Amino acid sequence: MPEATGAVQAAPPGDSTGSGRPARGKRALGPVALVVAGGLSVQFGAAVAVLLMPRTGALGVVSLRLALAAIVLLAVCRPALRGHSRADWGTVIAFGAVMAAMNCLFYQAADRIPLGAAVTLEVIGPLALSVIVSRRLVNLLWAGLALGGVLLLSGGGFDRLDPLGTAFALGAGAMWAAYIVFSARTGRRFPQADGLALAMAVGALLALPLGIVESGSKLLVPSTLGLALAVAVMSSVLPYTLELLALRRLPAPTFAVLMSLEPAIAATAGFLVLDQALAATDALAIALVIVASMGAVRTQIGRGTPESGPESGPESGPESGPESAPAQTPAPARGEAGEETL
Predict the structure, then answer these.
(1) How far apart are CA 240 and CA 337, in angstroms?
(2) According to a count of CB atoms within 10 Å of the terminal CB, is the N or C end of the chain lower?
(3) pLDDT digit string, tens, across residues 150-201
(4) Average pLDDT, whole number, for the chain?
């Protein structure tokens, strides 16, 4: 899920040494490794969350993940509560509401359909946002590829996948697109990760009553809390930290392309942790969506889109936001979500 990422400033795409070379050999591999590690953390965190669902239900997992992640981020960031305008708080509240909705929908999907399929369907939201904002004819090709991947994944009609799970995943994708917009706005109004920490707290407050209604006292079982803390750290705190460090040295377009691999990482996590094997057609469908996402990103780069966020031309998610620097990149930066981001 994309909420793993905050709005941070990416490094310039050129080499600062003036040598004309785009990277500095081994030094360029460090940020890439951080982004890949963040993606692995988000998607394997999502796999652990699926293992936790029989104990607490999907909504219970969401409420615990957001609550524990909010506690950690608030303790680390210590955001100021004073000195913000009504518009600032309105943006944070909207961001938190979108974050809660995105996570609730995504985990409901992951409870019903394979993790790789859920993330592939979810990434359609950020991809659609990128295509719509760019308004370039070539992006119809990428949209067509993505649609072909979705149809292939569904077996030609969504009866092969659980229809409700499919609807939840597509809804999560729409919320991921909204997450990108509000993440950008929050990043412009709050310093560092303060806005993300406050929004995470808002999301936790909104999701917690749903988790309590679904699971009640089951949320307080020590072993459940331990697993939920692992999910919160893997899907939110750790990937956010890794991607924050990476974006200080990595061009945002490169970051966006790397985040386009989220569906493949999710499918791998589903296979290794949840024993969710992929058919050849499933793997091809995921590959088509990844190519479409990368193509949309490269189209934005070729156009020279300023790295100022979705309002001037979008990118995580995939998250994820799991929950991914959505404020600047033209394609999904997740997180869950990525948890973890456009």
Answers:
(1) 11
(2) C
(3) 777 666 555 567 889 989 999 998 898 888 788 888 888 888 788 889 999 9
(4) 75
Joined tokens for residue 144? 């067509």
Instruction: Extract the tokens encoding 42.
Output: 């988000």
What's the burial of 252, exposed, middle or buried (CB within 10 Å: 0-12/13-18/19+)?
buried
Residue type, 336: E
Is pLDDT at 226 greater than 80 in this prediction?
yes
Flag whether pLDDT at 54 surpasses 70: yes
Strand (E) or helix (H) holding 124:
helix 124-134
In order of 3, 16, 321, 327, the CA distances from 196 in angstroms are 8, 30, 11, 12
Q: What are residue 339's phi and psi, to 5 degrees?
A: -35, -20
Place of tokens 């809390």: 225
Token pair for 300: 């934005």
CB atoms within 10 A of CB 86: 7
Region of 309 (left: φ > 0; alpha: ψ -120 to 50; beta: rest) is left
pLDDT of residue 238: 87
Judge whether residue 139 has pLDDT over 50. yes
Sign (positive/negative) of CA torsion 300, 303, 308, 313?
negative
Nearest to 266 by CA among 33, 99, 41: 41
Question: What pTM does this model have?
Answer: 0.73
- What is the end-to-end Cα distance of the chain in Å, rounded? 10
Q: Give the model's pLDDT for residue 327.
A: 38
Over 70: is that where the pLDDT of 116 sits?
Answer: yes
Q: Which residues contact 19 (CB under 8 A, 6 or more apart)?
A: none
Helix (H) or strand (E) holding 205: helix 194-215
- How far is 119 from 150, CA to CA, in rounded Å? 11
Q: What share of the chain is helix, strand, coil (3-state, %, to 5)?
A: 70, 0, 30
Residue 59 in tokens: 């909504």
Closest CA relative to residue 181, chosen from 253, 118, 217, 132: 132
Residue 314 has pLDDT above 50, yes or no: no
Measuring CA to CA, how many Å separate 184 from each of 8, 92, 100, 325? 9, 11, 17, 9
Residue 39 confidence (pLDDT) above 70:
yes
